[in-house]
Design brief:
Layout (H helix, E strand, L loop, with lengths): L1 E5 L4 H13 L6 E8 L8 H23 L5 E8 L2 H9 L4 E4 L14 H9 L4 E3 L10 E5 L4 H13 L6 E8 L2 H4 L3 H4 L4 H6 L1 H22 L7 E8 L2 H11 L4 E6 L12 H9 L3 E6 L4
Parallel strand pairs: 1-2, 1-4, 2-3, 4-5, 6-7, 6-9, 7-8, 9-10
Antiparallel strand pairs: 5-10
Helix pairs in contact: 3-4, 10-11
């Protein structure tokens, strides 16, 4: 398993390393530590800047290397100069997962996702783990957001392939979107009686979505069989992102797992609204896995 861990030496980055080591399988783990210094924009003094920044990145990488010492089959340190987000995104495709802290150096206390982390989450095509501090001291609590898509299945398969799930408690949550919202019936829906709701277009769609929900969570459960984890399923209704965030907070989860769909044009936002909102606002770590290429 090849793991990319960008670091800027901040406490947030150090915490992300510790979270990643705890979550990932220990077997055959190869870690590349990457420290990217910003480019120098002037011609005058460039050589002096590069000498100083090389010394600083080396020091940051040595500290990170101490944190992962003995935790991987092979550890490499990679210093680089350029746009941190662009360098990380360009390298991420070569790894099974990229682990990044949500804030990084210089980010304010109230920020949910720093500028580098947000760009990596939006644009990296390979799996990204936004690693926040764990809540559990022992067994992990994992919330899988299942929607029946290829991206969702790929997220679960990534979870089972590279994460240590022994002794963990897993909840598979499927949230059925309320169709009456999309049909513009917000103001009128509460005035409908039960017969009117059942006979309406929204009611017909809602019944079909309810039937599909059971199949979706069972398909997800099947992907988790035989892994030494306890698995429960849950079905909710409403706004998917809000429902998942609410459950993550109530259940004190350590990790949310979500599949992401969206355009692959680097000039535009690449995440769906649900996965993007979870990455920004989750109270715990979030694993984001994109739909497999067609």
């Amino acid at each position: 398993m090849k793991v990319l861990i960008p670091t800027d030496g901040s406490p947030d980055a150090q915490a992300a390393i510790q979270t990643g080591l705890r979550l990932l399988r220990a077997e055959d783990r190869n870690i590349d530590l990457l420290c990217v210094a910003p480019s120098y924009r002037k011609n005058v003094g460039r050589k002096r800047y590069e000498e100083r920044i090389l010394s600083e990145t080396t020091e940051i990488l040595e500290k990170a290397r101490e944190a992962v010492s003995g935790e991987a089959h092979e550890i490499r340190s990679i210093p680089a100069i350029g746009s941190p987000a662009a360098v990380i995104v360009s390298r991420a495709d070569d790894y099974d997962v990229t682990i990044i802290g949500p804030k990084g150096a210089g980010a304010g206390q109230n920020i949910a996702l720093g500028p580098v982390a947000s760009r990596v989450v939006e644009h990296a095509l390979a799996p990204v783990l936004v690693a926040r501090e764990l809540r559990s001291e022992s067994g992990l609590r994992i919330l899988i957001a299942a929607d029946g898509s290829a991206a969702s299945a790929s997220a679960i398969q990534t979870l089972t392939r590279i994460f240590d799930l022994r002794g963990s408690e897993i909840t598979i949550l499927h949230v059925t979107e309320t169709p009456w919202v999309h049909l513009g019936l917000e103001d009128d829906w509460e005035t409908y009686d039960e017969d009117e709701k059942l006979q309406s277009e929204a009611g017909t769609i809602e019944k079909e979505l309810t039937r599909e929900s059971g199949a979706i969570v069972e398909e997800a459960r099947e992907l988790l069989r035989g892994l030494g984890a306890s698995v429960e399923t849950s079905i909710d209704e409403g706004n998917p992102a809000d429902a998942i965030l609410g459950e993550a907070e109530r259940g004190q989860y350590d990790l949310i797992v979500v599949g992401a769909s969206g355009t692959r044009d680097l000039k535009h936002s690449m995440l769906g609204s649900v996965s993007s909102k979870l990455a920004w606002n989750a109270p715990c770590s979030v694993l984001i896995v994109r739909e497999p290429p067609r």
